[in-house]
Amino acid sequence: MHDNVRDLIGDIWLSGQLGADFTAVCDTGGRVAGTDSETAAQSYLEGAARALGGEYREQTFTVTGLRSDEHGVSMVASGRELQSYPLLNCAQVDDEFEVIDLGRGTPVDFEGARDRIPGKAVLVRHEFPFSTNHVHRGVKLELARTYGAAAFLIGNNQPGAGPVSGSGGAGEPGEMPAFGLSYDATSELSTALAFGPARVRLFNRATPGEWTGRNIFVHFPGRTQEHVVLSAHIDGHGLAESAMDNGSGLATVLEVARRLGPLAADSERGLTLALFTFEEWALTGSAEYVASLNEAERSLIHCNVNVDTPVGYPRLFGLTAGHPRILELLRQASVVGGTPVHPIYAHTTNSDHANFLAAGIPAVRLIGGYNDDSAGSRLLLTAADTRHRVEPLDLKHGAIVTALVTLAAMGA
Ligand SMILES: [Zn+2]
């Protein structure tokens, strides 16, 4: 092992700043884009990014949507309140709906109930999102629209973690109201439906809003114009601290940029740290960045290393879309670090790397755990995504592996 790699691993292992950044980001709260919590995180991250010493730059853009002011879901027959949370951009509503329970809510479930769905609220289940065979909430929401549902309810599959959140659309007129329910609320509703028809009252008072998104960049030039974009998303959900998703990723990329930025000048390729926001809103921040680049600028990005939830599991996985350049980087990092980075070949669209892939730029998402629903990521988007769920060892391990992947990509 080269001395510089040994030093790099040792420096990250002993770094006090990694944990300090993680704690400071969690202290700002859930960081829903456009809220005071996100603004507080932005100002902390701006300070941390400027302190790295590279070329600091920002990109701003405008986002419109709906913000919920007051909300609730209750059983009409009993008047009982169900533990619920409006999905991001949930439409305004104050009405009663008959509910149909579609179980998981797969395409087959929807097709089988095709005649019974129009005008009803569909109840589906949240699933462990990081496996090859899961059906994403966005797909279920689209099926609900296609089959003519009037409202969308998604039940948490994790007991004791409250309702599940997530994106509920673009906040445009005519969209259906969409709520997350807790595991217990889902059981209560599902049991009632087993005995006969059941109705729920859905209430959401929402205000249309316009927000300014701000992406943060720090560039360290290399020997050539080519560079590696190391990214993490800033924003999160309102139910907890968005600690795993993605406080852990933010602390990781800051730490890696702190260690690798000074090495860029002697590396074949430079390093660009990118902190994107409005990720939870259909990956808007990174889409704005990629859209701002011309063809020549895109071709100078050797790859995107996107860090989203690198914790919650003792081993790291790379979502590679099967790109040979990325597979080679993971192999090198595994060999050099003596710790495996497992490649997943599926083309995934669950974080900012998807916008790079869509533009023809090789990209990888690094994540802790895949295809194993015991991973901490089973609790993302719930009240359980707090700092206490993050093992310091996982955070350090994720940062070391991210550094080795990025170092290999820089050709250092
Ligand atoms: Zn995320």
TrEMBL record:
Give the matching InterPro entries: CPQ, PA_dom_sf, PA_domain, Peptidase_M28
Coarsely, its chief localization is: endoplasmic reticulum
Q: Which molecular function term from Gene Ontology is one that the record holds?
A: metal ion binding
What biological processes does GO assign it?
proteolysis
| One Pfam family this sequence matches | PA
Location of this chain's protein in the cell: Endoplasmic reticulum; Golgi apparatus; Lysosome; Secreted
Record's PANTHER family?
CARBOXYPEPTIDASE Q, PROTEASE FAMILY M28 PLASMA GLUTAMATE CARBOXYPEPTIDASE-RELATED
The subunit structure is:
Homodimer. The monomeric form is inactive while the homodimer is active.
What protein name is recorded for this chain? Carboxypeptidase Q
What is the organism field in this record? Answer: Microbacterium keratanolyticum
